[in-house]
Amino acid sequence: MKLVIFGLTISSSWGNGHATLWRGLCRALAGMGHHVVFYEKDVPYYASQRDYWDIPNGRLVLYTDWESVLSSARADLEDADVGMVTSYCEDGIAASELVLSSRVQLKTFYDLDTPVTLDQLDSGKPVPYLLPRGLGDFDLALSYTGGAALQALRERLGARRVAPIYGSVDPEAHKPVKPVEGYRCDLSYLGTYAEDRQAALNTLFIEAARRLPERRFIIAGAQYPHEFPWTDNIYFVRHLPPPEHSAFYCSSRLTLNVTRRAMAAMGYCPSGRLFEASATGTPILSDWWEGLDTFFTPGKEMLIGRTVEDSVAALELTDAELASIAKAARERTLAEHTARNRAEEMLIAFEWALSPLLANQRSQLVEA
Q1: Which of 86, 1, 78 is nearest to 39 (CA)?
Q2: Furthest C-alpha separation in the chain
């Protein structure tokens, strides 16, 4: 199968969660014999932090402007089985029109930011990667978020067929490794700065650091403002490229996951960080949202934090207790949440969406 994808980025992990997910999915799809062509606009902020160039059994197309790549994209779609546009694609509307006007067998949209998309619609703000008429012309809409989000895509955006494709992890890229001295800490947090995560981060991380001045805390991520409430025992890594994620996690006694407000409110939206950290064998403390227990069992495979007292209590657990939680989470992740799992789920969704289309084509041939 040949998939042509028009997305935000696969080449740079700086300040976004799309790249790492796509790298794992593309590797998994390649291992199953499929071919991916990924179109990405070459913008300066990703170009300066590029850390990925080659898609296994596939091709990365970087372009400066849409017109310059239009003929190439049209040609790629001519012999493709699946054409896909994703949320936050820089030329999402133009790419959608191209896919929908092409002869590609299956036309799909993958919203990796469904709660944000719906939140913008609720606020009356334009969604620059969506067609004004919504998703009704696509054969299939995939969503990084499940639960109520799936019905909302049908009701608000006219999606005809929807299926969840959650976050995942590539076990080849995220696995137990030796700790790195510079990353050693009691509690770590890996994530791009987001204002709507700050309240939870203040409660579960900043306040815990203030209450436990003898402990070491580390934040890694991009776009943190100068006025961030640092303390003397919080250390900072400005950008952590994916090859160092495993070492970062494995140097942490415990790591924190905080979900963006819109995603937490919608529920059923697990961050890829949950699966990446658990795959490395690092115990996780996470904020709570509806559906979290669908992916991990609270108390057994993951700790839940709602208050600063929860963070302090988690840090006071013994190494043996934390190791038991980490082991259980890693086993669950490797069984259910790998990129291979999600690639298989994606192919099942493709087959499901194609079935009525192929049946209709056969009917038209018979009538002809």
Answers
A1: 86
A2: 79
Going by pLDDT thresholds of 50, 70 and 90, the confidence category of residue 368 is very low
User: pLDDT band at residue 48, thresholds of 50, 70 and 90?
Assistant: very high
Indicate if the pLDDT at residue 266 is higher than 50: yes
d(CA 283, CA 362): 52
Q: Could you give phi then psi for residue 327, rounded to 5 degrees?
A: -65, -45
pLDDT tier at 334, thresholds 50, 70, 90:
very high
Could you tell me if 5 and 35 are in contact, meaning their C-beta atoms sit under 8 angstroms apart?
A: no
Instruction: Give 3-state DSSP helix, strand, coil % of the chain, rounded to 5.
Output: 45, 20, 40
Of 27, 152, 134, the C-alpha closest to 85 is: 134
The per-residue pLDDT for 361 is: 55
CA distance linking residue 164 with residue 110, whole number of Å: 9
3-state secondary structure of 107: strand
CB atoms under 10 Å from CB of 54, counted, come to 8
Asked if residue 356 has pLDDT above 90, the reply is: no
| DSSP E strand stretches across the chain | 2-6, 35-41, 58-63, 82-86, 106-111, 140-143, 162-164, 185-190, 217-220, 234-237, 252-257, 284-286, 303-304
Cα(360)–Cα(368) distance, integer angstroms: 12
Residue 160: burial class (beta carbons within 10 Å; 0-12, 13-18, 19+): middle
Q: Which two tokens stand for residue 33?
A: 């014999």
The Cα 40–Cα 135 span in angstroms is: 21
CB atoms within 10 A of CB 75: 11
Q: Tens of pLDDT along 152-188?
A: 999 999 999 999 999 999 999 999 999 999 999 999 9
In terms of Cα–Cα distance, which of 17, 29, 20, 37 is closest to 99? 37
Task: Name the 3-class secondary structure at 62.
Answer: strand
DSSP per-residue letters across 189-220:
EE----GGGHHHHIIIIIHHHHH-TTS-EEEE
Contact criterion met (CB below 8 Å) for 60 and 10: yes
